[in-house]
Amino acid sequence: MKKNRTVKMVKTFVMVIVLALFGFNNAVAQDGTEITDDKLEAYIMVMDSVTVLKTQLSDTVSAMIVEHELMDGGRAYNIIKSAAGDSVQLAEEGITDEQLVAFKELQKKREELEAALNESFSNLVKEYVGISEYNTIRKGLKNDPELKERYQALKESDTAEAATTESGTPE
């Protein structure tokens, strides 16, 4: 009886050591899914790509608004947007029917671009990370400090590597 107890304790101790060593290289999500550095790097790449796409979208939409001849450098757009359909306020501000039509066209174009961005994001997730892994990593980053620390370290490493590559300095 005492021998069985000792054997169980030794097995438990060995398992704890193995899990501790394993944990330095990989995190295990609450659902038992292993999150490797490769998966985290793919996640970082997807998120960085989406950040670039969002910036491009924002710049494109801003340029469309500012450059549109009826939007008065964006002033009319902002008035229409803030009025939220209040015809009295729009009339007081001197907004024309043509400007309202142009606003609606710009809104439609913005929505189309956002839909394209969302589709690109979905495709990137599917191709490079996988939907299940993406959700696991996203959830893990909120709840697992060790995973978040690994993520930050990898992200900083990627940023430093990119800066070195851009400056032409050998690694």
Q: In words, what does this structure look like?
A:
There is one protein chain. This protein is an all-alpha fold and 171 residues long. It has a domain at 41-68 and 103-156. It is 80% helix and 2% strand. It has seven helices and two strands; from the N terminus they run H-E-E-H-H-H-H-H-H. It has helices at residues 2-23, 37-67, 75-83, 87-92, 97-129, 131-143, 145-167, and strands at 27-28, 34-35. The protein has a two-stranded antiparallel ribbon with strand order 1-2. A hairpin with a 5-residue loop joins strand 1 (27-28) and strand 2. Helix 2 (37-67) packs across helix 7 (145-167). The longest helix is centred in the middle third of the chain and has 33 residues, at 97-129. The chain is elongated. The relative contact order is 0.12.
* Main structural class: mainly alpha
What's the total number of strands? 2
Q: Strand order of the main beta sheet, please? A: 1-2
- Major sheet: size, sense and barrel closure? 2 strands, antiparallel
Descriptive tags:
about 170 residues; disordered N terminus; mainly alpha; 2 strands; about 0% strand
Summary of the model, kept short:
80% of the residues lie in helices and 2% in strands. With 171 residues, the protein is mainly alpha-helical.
What's the arrangement of secondary structure elements?
Blueprint: H1 2-23, E1 27-28, E2 34-35, H2 37-67, H3 75-83, H4 87-92, H5 97-129, H6 131-143, H7 145-167
Antiparallel strand pairs: 1-2
